[in-house]
Specification:
- This protein is about 40% helix and about 15% strand.
- By secondary structure, it is of the alpha+beta class.
- It folds into 2 domains: about 120 residues, no CATH class; about 45 residues.
- The strands form 3 sheets. A 3-stranded antiparallel sheet has the order 1-2-3.
- The longest helix is centred in the last third of the chain and has 25 residues.
């Protein structure tokens, strides 16, 4: 039915679309359903309403049960929004009217106090499994970096190398002081070096014996 203000939808039909379309009722909708219906829903122009968004369903109910503003807000004077009329409900939509609350654009309403816009940012999306994995990997990398920085001086990082291996060299009844072996040497190289060192000690020992 076309009314002087546009397209009229009976309040009962509008309420049915809001509450019986398989959508979960928000706290605002639960409060709005306890207010007496004052009027039918009148649109500025005939069009299909998108009621998938909670704010849009709340705006429909605000239009039906709300109180007409003595003076329309700045947006409504410009005919912004789908509804004919500027209606408000105390304690709902942070002070914004029905038209401005449509599509969650209540921040533009001139009725809305600035203090109500502090928490107007959308809630963060739940991170996906990939995002959580990347976040955990980044945190692990930061922890490893912090641990490494804790073992180095601020001016210059120090490369920590393994201590060189030591081998006791024994010649006859004499035990020579430990021979320090570089860690880069293979076992075969270490055995060859120890054998060479033992041979040198034997030659030196024989020379001392001959002198005596």
């Amino acid at each position: 039915m076309v009314d002087k203000g546009g397209y009229r939808m009976a309040s009962g039909e509008a309420i049915e679309k809001v509450y019986y379309d398989g959508q979960k009722a928000t706290k605002a909708l639960q409060a709005l359903e306890n207010i007496w219906v004052k009027r039918d829903l009148i649109l500025r122009e005939p069009k299909e309403l998108n009621l998938s968004r909670p704010s849009n369903r709340e705006a429909v109910m605000m239009t039906i049960v709300g109180t007409a503003a003595p003076t329309e807000c700045k947006s409504c004077t410009k005919k912004d929004g789908p509804f004919d009329g500027c209606f408000v409900v105390p304690g709902v939509a942070r002070g914004s009217c029905n038209n401005c609350h449509w599509n969650s654009e209540g921040i533009k309403c001139s009725f809305r106090p600035p203090s109500a816009n502090v928490d107007d940012t959308p809630a963060p999306r739940k991170p996906t499994t990939t995002a959580l994995f990347k976040k955990k990997a980044a945190a692990t990398a930061m922890t490893a970096t912090a641990a490494q920085d804790a073992t180095t001086t601020p001016a210059q990082a120090v490369t920590m190398t393994p201590a060189p291996a030591a081998a006791n060299v024994t010649v006859g009844n004499f035990e020579v002081l430990p021979l320090i072996l570089p860690p880069s040497m293979t076992n075969a190289q270490k055995r060859l070096l120890i054998q060479t060192f033992q041979n040198m000690i034997i030659v030196l020992e024989n020379s001392l014996t001959d002198m005596v």
